Amino acid sequence: MAETKKNSKISRLKIAPTIVPRNNHIISRTQISDNALKVLYRLKNAKYKAYLVGGAVRDILLGIKPKDFDVVTDAKPEQIRELFRNCRLIGRRFRLAHIQFGREIIEVSTFRTSHHISDDNDGHERDGRIIRDNVYGDIDDDVWRRDFTINALFYNINDFSVIDYVGGIKDLEAGQLRLIGDPTKRYIEDPVRMLRAIRFASKFDLKMHSSAEEPIKENSHLLENIPSGRLYEEILKLFLNGNAYKTLIELRRYNLFEYLFPQTNQVLTQNERGYAHEFIKHALKNTDQRVKEGQTVNPGFLLAAILWGPIRIMIEEYSSNGHSDIEATRLAGDTIISKQISSTSIPRRFTHMARDIWVLQARLKRIKRKSLRILAHPRFRAAYDFLLLRAQSGECMEELIEYWTKEQLKEPHAGKNKMKTRRDRNSSKRFNRNSRTKDL
Fold it and tell me: What is the pLDDT of residue 213?
């Protein structure tokens, strides 16, 4: 009787998927990580169902090399751990298996249902939000708990076919981003999906379906309830995918940026075409170029750039109260950072780097004074590139840039801080618009 009552709460939606055979799609095992294939085949050989799922399948179909590979199976987390000695189980809301091969981690999840049952306290909702999600199901249950159709494609290791329950392949072909299920309900379940919608639309140049687009502005306030640590992780994904500037425009368009960087958003809103907008545009386009060239980007530099607008205003306030440039910059940095971390949690190593870059902007104004000490600072090159961005954005800094460019060419600064001659000549003439630094 109790079992009947429990099952009655789960009205499973069973539909026949579209099966795309191997000769009708472009996915090849040569495009899949050897370690992911090891996981898929070991699960298969142990008589479990095993599929490559999500971003890897989507990326290969788009002609993009995947960065990571996720696997889904009917094996329970404890059964997965029995198969892999290099397995670690993580998570509370989502019980996942991480299988580590050196630096590569293959994430394996068990099929889950989109229906949340509170009888055994294994999965339930609160105010529409998913609190825990460990109700196991099958592949035709699991597909409905995924967010976007383009992320709900399964590559079957048994026959190398692609399984599509929700029209994800057609949406990829049409360049469309569409949510699975009722968009408003899905955003309430997990408000971070609104940020993911912006990220996918910007990164893959997709047009949001009207049903996915319309509820975002009215539900943007739900991001206030998301833990600051999770928002920080989303910021990295949003601004380090090679489309940072486009992402910024879309975040502001849908009233989402204010929940990530409220101080910067206020400055941009007050003067849409002013210096702050020009600076952040150059900084993010610079970041995009580095990502596309395969170079690293330090989140500390990104943080320093995004918060530079409110920092400048705060520096002026402290300076007007009689503080020196360096002291005003330090005080402004402490104030702005403390306000920022109330919205998004940021590791100290990155906030420290941002503070160093800001303070060095004041120290770089002191030409011919303690040049050697400034050049030896571990953040000098990042601060120098920051100075170049300021010049690109309209600040008059010809003398400073020329001075510090020449200083780096002098002996005995021929070590790690010395730049290539041709690059420096270009920087002094046109502010070195393409300058790069390993600290960036």
Answer: 96
